[in-house]
Amino acid sequence: MPTEITSSIAALRARLEPVRRAGAAIGFVPTMGALHDGHASLIQRAREDCGHVVVSIFVNPLQFDRREDLQGYPRTMDADLALCASLGVETVFAPREGEMYPRPPACTVDVGGMADHLCGRYRPGHFRGVATVVLKLFQIVQANRAYFGEKDAQQLAIIRRLVSDFNIPVVIVGMPTVREADGLALSSRNRRLSPEERKEAPVLFRALDAARSRIEGGERDANAIRRHAVALVPSHRTLEYFEIVDPETMQPVTRVDGPVLVAGAIWIGSTRLIDNAPATPPE
Ligand code: AMP
Does the reported pTM lie above 0.85? Predict the structure, then answer.
């Protein structure tokens, strides 16, 4: 089936209705475009699992807390469509803003304390915007399975909770972070880095990895783990946060007594990069 591109909710529903009736599983990969190999890994997994794959491409204004970040967000629609076609995606849903938000929403999703730390603390309203658009997209697509990257671990934890709290009949599949050879997590924002900045960008990965090693080596004091890891970041770079949290609730821990998530955000010039490392202490 050749890739069909639709920007209308009604047309998407009309296309998916017979697919669902024929009993094919629908796999859904929500994205903001500027697709890279990280997105491709999600799409490939959806392709393996499901009879019909839907990729959405929508830069959601509701989740941007800074106007310049929204305006400067990379947009590469032609290349994105070519990638989707090459991966055998049946349907690309690329709505305009007016289709998704014909008027400003009165009802949005309050994610509570799950947004109190990590990115949520520094990007007010971000996860409200994410949870709201994902809920809308789930209602529109009504997929059997939806695929998200562990790179955005707080987002993934919130979506799992959204699905559980609202009894949404979709299976959430989390996929491992795809990285460059030097450890840098693939991100649509990486293309904004200058060659000099690109060289420095893996420093966050190295700090997270150092924290993971300490935890796996038996260190349990979260402050000590954090101090040691943060010292690896050169002083001219701003670490926005570097925290050790419970992987489900996203609340900070003081002692590492079970599996945790180490997560950080760093500014490299005017580009903000995030990454994380799951870690489990020895028995
Ligand atoms: P985005 O377009 O940045 O909103 O991302 C769309 C989906 O791709 C989200 O579920 C992300 O977590 C996932 N994703 C982004 N970067 C990566 C990566 N490097 N590896 C795996 N998944 C990723």
Answer: yes
